[in-house]
Automatic annotation (TrEMBL):
Binding residues annotated for NAD(+), in chain numbering: G36, A37, A38, S39, K40, I41, G42, D62, N122, M257
Keywords: NAD, Oxidoreductase, Tricarboxylic acid cycle
Protein name: Malate dehydrogenase, mitochondrial
GO cellular component, one term: mitochondrion
One Pfam family, short name: Ldh_1_C
Molecular function GO labels: L-malate dehydrogenase (NAD+) activity
Biological processes, Gene Ontology terms: carboxylic acid metabolic process; tricarboxylic acid cycle
Enzyme active site: H205 (proton acceptor)
Family stated for the protein in its record: Belongs to the LDH/MDH superfamily.
Superkingdom of source: Eukaryota
Length: 348
């Protein structure tokens, strides 16, 4: 694996102190595109968005023409946003004028594989989206849940940089499932309502790089001891694989994933509508010595206002973070390097 990293593509870095004093622009009734909307994640997410009062127009795209059936069915749910479905070669129209584009395609992993091994299966669909974004809507917020997040976001960022439309303030890798799981598991362990809990999760989105900070659990009168923290961390890191194995390889996490993507994008919608929000996501962030990093991120209507900075950590968490940093650096380099394999010189 090590030989791959011979030449790196540099993309501009975000400072974690940036954009702190931008004014709000009230901007309601968001237009939203879901790419990969015929899948279980995509259609469940679309159903949740159909009930989101802040969305005016929901555009559904999938390469699979069954997306038209999903679109028709959603029009039978009374009220909510106007629905349009797009298939095959209509990706450009599907993303044009949208404030937020969420990418949930393409290949999920099978038992026995790691997320890292998904890169070659999933770059082509990201490449298509980057081209369409450059040509049709470079100003949109772009949120991607396609695995492997740790490498796909650097790959997409380098691609958009090549197309002269990379905006690090508006590019998000969706890692919200890790906070959802951390809250759910901590709630069970403490026998409290998980919806009342917040757990920052930093690092990346893979077994070696998810670092939940149970020492920072809030409200702070709830505490987990060292033994519980170790057990919960292992559970969160293995949660995706556990779902995969118990669904007997037929699919990865889809329902909790649709729910958690909706909780995440609802926060992005609130940001676009003028609120300042803090959301867990994987973005450009050099603070920990990696180009990209996941953690609680402050977002406003123009995008990221401040990426996550320092946390007080237990010795156990610091140890895991150190290991995660070297793994993230490797994943980022592989993602950036993949641009050269897939594209060669820029063609538009
Ligand atoms: N970030 C996370 O926490 C997280 C969680 C779960 C799944 N995932 C990832 O999400 C991705 C999709 O997983 P899934 O279970 O929904 O897969 P799936 O196979 O159920 O669905 C994939 C969808 O992508 C569509 N698709 C394929 N090629 C396309 C193209 N060129 N353009 C548009 N759509 C296209 C397919 O038609 C299908 O509807 C995988 O990479 C998976 O690992 C990420
Ligand atoms: O584990 C997977 O492959 C899907 C996803 O990343 C998850 O965490 O459930």
């Amino acid at each position: 694996m090590t030989n791959i990293i011979t030449r790196r593509i540099s993309v501009p870095l975000l400072s974690n102190q940036s954009w702190s004093s931008m004014n709000y622009v009230a901007h309601k009734n968001v237009q939203f595109s879901v790419i990969g909307a015929a899948s279980k994640i995509g259609s469940n997410l679309s159903l949740l968005l159909k009930q989101n009062q802040k969305v005016r127009h929901l555009k559904l795209y999938d390469e699979d023409t069954r997306i038209n059936g999903v679109g028709i069915e959603l029009t039978h749910v009374p009220g909510g946003p106007f629905i349009t479905a797009y298939d095959s070669d209509k990706l450009g129209a599907a993303i044009q004028f949208s404030d937020i584009i969420v990418m949930v395609s393409r290949t999920p992993r099978k038992p026995g594989t790691t997320r890292e091994q998904m890169l070659s299966s999933n770059t082509s669909v990201i490449l298509q989206l980057c081209k369409a974004l450059a040509n049709n809507n470079p100003e949109a917020f772009l949120a991607i849940s396609t695995n492997p997040i740790n490498s796909i976001i650097p790959f997409a960022s380098a691609m958009l940089h090549k197309y002269h439309c990379y905006n690090p303030y508006k590019m998000f890798g969706i890692t919200h499932i890790d906070t959802a799981r951390s809250r759910a598991f901590a709630g069970d362990a403490l026998n409290v309502n998980p919806r009342d809990l917040e757990v920052p999760v930093i690092g990346g989105h893979s077994d070696k790089t998810i670092v939940p900070l149970f020492s920072n659990l809030t409200p702070s009168y709830y505490q987990v001891d060292a033994c519980q923290a170790d057990m919960l961390t292992r559970l969160v890191r293995k949660a995706g694989t556990e779902v995969l194995i118990n669904k007997q390889g037929t699919e990865s996490a889809t329902l909790a994933m649709a729910w958690s993507i909706h909780e995440f994008v609802d926060g992005l919608i609130n940001a676009i509508c003028g609120s300042e929000v803090v959301l867990n996501c994987y973005t450009a962030n050099p603070h920990y010595g990696t180009k990209f990093f996941s953690g609680p991120t402050n977002i406003g209507c123009y995008g990221i206002k401040q990426t996550c900075g320092n946390f007080k950590m237990s010795a156990y968490e610091s140890y895991m973070l150190n290991n995660a940093i070297s793994a993230i650096n490797c994943d980022v380099a592989i993602g950036e390097e993949y641009v050269r394999y897939i594209e060669g010189p820029v063609k538009r």
